[in-house]
Design a protein that fits this description.
Length: about 300
């Protein structure tokens, strides 16, 4: 694919009649994604941990006059009960998403465990999105060009999954475990593509990463040197959130994408720029890693997709 140097949100096709679920949609990349989709007529469900913040985001976007249908739904990705409740409510309300954008994330907090004993970045960034996707997938099968877009990071290329120490009991590094969660996102998105293809499903699984973008991700959770480095010292190098959202918008709406592809910025080091197809790390495409992570994720979430494992 040629570099999409001139691709901007203005080139998103009309999305009238399509339903999007965007996690973490009240701020940062999620809000920028929702705004761009709303301007093209999409019905967007803002899946957010704090419904009051989600409501304010809906009011803000509604005031901009797009006329799109917007609604906030509560979703705490670190809480399996909240994930299941959100999916059940969407189902009972007759919502049939065409596109799920797994966007929300937590970055580099002090070591924190969820009520289930899972490290919070792995739980929120990966397990919650894994479960939500599995619970909504059958609703998407008859959708209009159905897609699952999972947001990873360029950091997945320098990561590994600590299968013997998922919760960081032995040795915890805030960025190391953030990178683990982003590699898990990449492995999941690629393996979901393989399994959907093997099943003959019309749903496509795609991946995107935003490069280095200025959002509250760098300041809301990180502490110490990570916060100082990414939230202050390097911030002048970051691109604005509306630019960082372009790869996931491209993956979600462009007509020429193929399942299993990763899109990121086309600038130096994939830090900023317009969206283009970029390479996944070899670890993200390793079948043994993918099979192990998939089985583990099913066990930890209790959600099973019913998709055959590729040969």
């Amino acid at each position: 694919m040629r570099s999409q140097k001139r691709w901007t949100a203005d080139r998103i096709p009309d999305q009238s009649g399509r339903v999007f679920v965007v996690t973490g949609a009240n701020s940062g990349l999620g809000l920028a994604t929702t705004r761009a989709l709303a301007r093209k007529g999409a019905h967007v469900i803002l899946a957010v941990r704090d419904e009051s913040k989600g409501g304010r985001a809906v009011a803000e976007l509604t005031a901009e006059g797009s006329g799109a249908r917007l609604e906030a739904r509560r979703l705490d990705l670190s809480d399996p009960d909240s994930v299941r409740a959100c999916a059940d409510r969407l189902r009972s309300d007759g919502v049939r998403p065409d596109v799920l954008v797994n966007n929300a994330g937590v970055m580099a907090p002090p070591r924190t465990l969820t009520a289930r004993g899972h490290e919070v970045q792995f739980a929120a960034n990966h397990l919650g999105h894994f479960a939500l996707t599995g619970l909504l997938l059958d609703l998407m099968a008859d959708g209009d060009d159905p897609r699952v877009v999972t947001v990873t990071s360029a950091n997945h290329r320098q990561a590994r999954i600590f299968f013997q120490d998922l919760a960081g009991e032995r040795r915890y590094s805030p960025m190391g475990y953030y990178n683990q969660s982003k590699l898990a996102n990449a492995v999941f998105g690629r393996e979901l593509h393989r399994r959907l293809s093997a099943a003959g499903s019309p749903v496509r699984s795609l991946l995107a990463h935003p490069g280095y973008s200025s959002t509250n991700l760098q300041t809301s959770a990180p502490v110490g040197m990570v916060r100082l480095l990414f939230g202050r010292l390097l911030l002048p190098l970051a691109q604005p959130s509306h630019q960082g959202a372009l790869p996931q918008l491209y993956a979600a709406t462009a007509p020429d994408v193929q399942g299993g592809e990763l899109f990121g910025p086309d600038g130096m080091g994939e830090l900023r720029g317009a969206p283009k197809r970029v390479e996944l790390a070899p670890r993200a495409t390793d079948p043994e890693t993918a099979g192990r992570l998939w089985q583990l994720s099913e066990e930890l979430t209790g959600v099973r997709f019913g998709l055959p494992a590729p040969a």
